[in-house]
Amino acid sequence: MESVFHLSELGTSVKKEMLAGLTTFISMSYILFVNPDILGDAGMDKGAVFTATAISAIIGCLLMAFLANYPIAIAPGLGDNAFFTYSVVIAMGVPWQTALAGVVVASILFFIITFMKIREIVIDAIPHDLKLAMSAGIGIFIAFVGLQGGGLIVKEESTLVTIGSFTNGEVWLTIFGFLVIIILIARKVSGAIFIGMVATAILGLVTHLIPLPNHIVSSIPSLKPTIGVGLMNIPNINTFQLWSVVLLFLFVAFFNTAGTLIGLAEQAGFMKNNKMPRIGRALGADSGSLLAGSLLGTTPTAAYVESSAGIALGGRSGLTALVVAVLFFLSMFFSPLLTVITTNVTAPVLIVVGILMAQPLKGINWHKFEIAVPAFLIVVGMPLTYNISYGIAFGFLTYPILMIAAGKWRKVHPVLYVLFFVFLLLLYILNTLN
Length: 434
Hints:
Strand content: under 5%
Strand order of the largest sheet: 1-4
Low-confidence stretches: none
Structural class: mainly alpha
Number of strands: 4
Oligomer: single chain
């Protein structure tokens, strides 16, 4: 253990790492049920997605443990699966098989640019304020999806959206779950999200809003409905629209993990001179799990902000991530619970995760107008256009313009000027697709 994870050097112990790994797993285990629920909306087999979610998380955590030696867990990201289902499959009308092929191609390109360290260069060039805005914007987008899924917000012709009906029992189930989770978090209870999901599911079963499962433990669901589907459908990516989808997946995956990795490294005290040691290895673990997940049949993986729960308990090495990987393996035998974890059980999770992801808003320099405008456009652009890429594009297009107007053009990294034209192209592509 010592020779692999350098526990003494990092000021930790096996006991601390085990407890940190358990805490991190409990805090993020909701993804096992939320990911199949969201990708199920795209028409994918929930059982297969459940298995693909667990295996891709295992691969990501093992890579993070042994390659980068960080206490950071990896699993399919909420922002990425929401983008896949609601922006690409539903909004653009792309079949999930073809969209998954887009994820595979984007994953291969993603792996290449990570290996060439292009990703590190771009991440270092992005202003800290815009990184914070991107993280917060994705959080608010996820919360909006949860509010819709739980029936708290519904479609209304004259005002676009309005409040849902409180005569609906399922809406109250969502409210109950939300209250349980936020109360437990306020009480600083570890695994609050997981406990809240269990409590909501039990209430749903008692009130017959959720049907009883036939059993709890079973064999691992087959990957057959999803494994290799993306790879086999790569030939179907033969139009400008579909190659544009590949670009979008690459783009979203490119930026999604950066803010989380930096934030967790700051929390753990790893940052040195505003740089994260071994960031290349951490990004390599991320890209490796992303490629594996796309081949198995799930959306891009990402570093999990819930890793902060384990770090807060003293997790400092890859042993924490190794423990998380082991627990994900054991969880694969509980797939029958998928029938119990309905949209109204997962909706409170999305809302709460959105709240947690919005916390970086406090770090943005709102008093500087040339910063406030692009940050604001990123944050509100994602939920109001129902598209993560639109929000990011709005911010990256206005940032260099306002910095030039403020006479601060020399402070803009040259990479940002290149990205300005990339986003112009991206905006054109998105407009063409719609």
